[in-house]
Amino acid sequence: MEYYFFELFRAFSIAMVAFFLFLTWRILFSCWISPTQVYQKLRRNGFGGPTPSFPLGNITEMTKKNGGSSLGPSKSAHDIHSSVFPYFARWQKSHGKVFVYWLGTEPFLYIADPEFLKMMSAEVVAKSWGKPSVFRNDRDPMFGNGLVMIEGDNWVRHRHVITPAFHPTNLKVMATLMVESTTKMLDKWATLINSSRPEIDVESEITTTAGEIIAKTSFGISYQSGQNVLKKLKTLQMTLFKSNRFVGVPFSKLFCPKQTREAKMLGKEIDQLFLSIIDDRKKSIKGQPPQDLLGLLLRGNTHVDGRLGRTLTPQELVDECKTFFFGGHETTALAITWTLLLLATHPKWQNQLRDEIREVLQDHKELDVNKLGGLKKMGWVMNEVLRLYPTAPNVQRQARADIRVNEQTIPKGTNMWIDVVGMHHDAALWGEDVNEFKPERFENDIYGGCKHKMGYVPFGFGGRMCVGRNLTFLEYKIVLTLILSRFSFTISPNYTHSPSILLSLRPRHGLPLIIKPL
Ligand code: HEM
């Protein structure tokens, strides 16, 4: 008997040691051996960059506080690259416009050279692009397997179902919802001004309204369940923002277990709420024309381009609704916010846009959506704002196979970080007036006179370009038209110019404006 127990104990101990050795090997391989191999391969292929250290990579240098102080809204105020990405601006000086840096044990190929970008994207079809696994894991509660993160044939299927929903004809139905939410916001502004409070933080106002608009246009929030989802989506975003995550560093999630757990639970609750919304919709949708993106997707689930069978499962529909919310509302809200800053500091353009609105819409009380296309100058202003302040400040990809660019090979697994702010502020591409607000650049050229077509990419590039841009164009024009038709505005003395990155490019201290009724 004793011998039997001894043998059992021996076998158990051997199994434990083997398991421990296997675990150590796995950890060593993924945290040390594999990154070292990639590092050496990148070096052999001529990609230089700042020297990483284990296990943080180059994060220490990236998280150092920027010495630069806040800028006043003068001409040079728009020279933001070295203040929002000081480490990239510094590394560019010593390593050029294409180099490798490391987030923890993850290699990132930094790209701010449009010619390199063009050659690289010519080698890869849209469905073969990956998205950095570290970001996919980190933002899973927000995007799940939605279009932003999904890859391969599944991406093709999702994109086929989703693209028709964003057709301008479908979006026009949603214009009334946009007018309704914006008018509610502006009525509140009028009340505040009447009670002698003309200073309004328009950033938070517009972000709230854009959140409401995207919720209405994506999945409808007229029901209690819809309101509930909106509240929880906002809490989820705050929870993920609050957690100080060292993306790319092995086991970094263990540093903030509370937030990680909270985000996971919220993600699950949101999914459940969405699933019941979808269930209700399926029952009530028959015979009714779709009023929002979810309605269009449910309709598209049976017929797309006349073909049957390209469908999304309920969980995939949930992930898409979350993706529209997180991918769509802040980017658009911030585009409008930065526009208000630039119009407040360029009253000539504020007046020009007001004149254009009068001319095109002819002072009609009801806003005619079909005429918005005539607001050409407003279109140039939007392009110029997204050049100076690209609210999506970078585009990310991952190589799913080796990619050849000239004589160099980007190894499979390498992440890519395309620095949109860097390219949009590059004097070699735009000329000496690169940091000036000049919407007229876009008068006769959709690339704003940029010397390289890949140098202007506010909505990304190639087949994975932003699917929601038509919705943004519509919302931007409606919100701005309604604001300019009722108010004039100047910058408040309390404003501090400090653009910063928190996923999107935003004014760190909000945007207080002094607003007057016309
Ligand atoms: C000013 C507003 C917006 C900006 C600056 C913006 C920017 C971007 C960028 C840079 C990408 C990545 C493209 C790439 O990888 O090449 C993207 C993708 C995407 N955007 Fe937007 N976006 C905006 C508004 C919206 C809106 C309103 C929605 C939806 C309601 C939306 C949904 C998406 C989705 C689903 C993708 C993934 C597309 C794919 O990978 O196939 N975006 N956006």
Automatic annotation (TrEMBL):
InterPro entries: Cyt_P450, Cyt_P450_CS, Cyt_P450_E_grp-I, Cyt_P450_sf, Cytochrome_P450_Monooxygen
GO cellular component: membrane
Compartment annotation: Membrane
Chain coiled-coil ranges: none
Binding-site residues for heme, renumbered to this chain: C466
Entry keyword annotation includes Heme: yes
UniProt record similarity statement: Belongs to the cytochrome P450 family.
Record protein name field: Cytokinin hydroxylase-like
Species per Swiss-Prot/TrEMBL record: Juglans regia (English walnut)
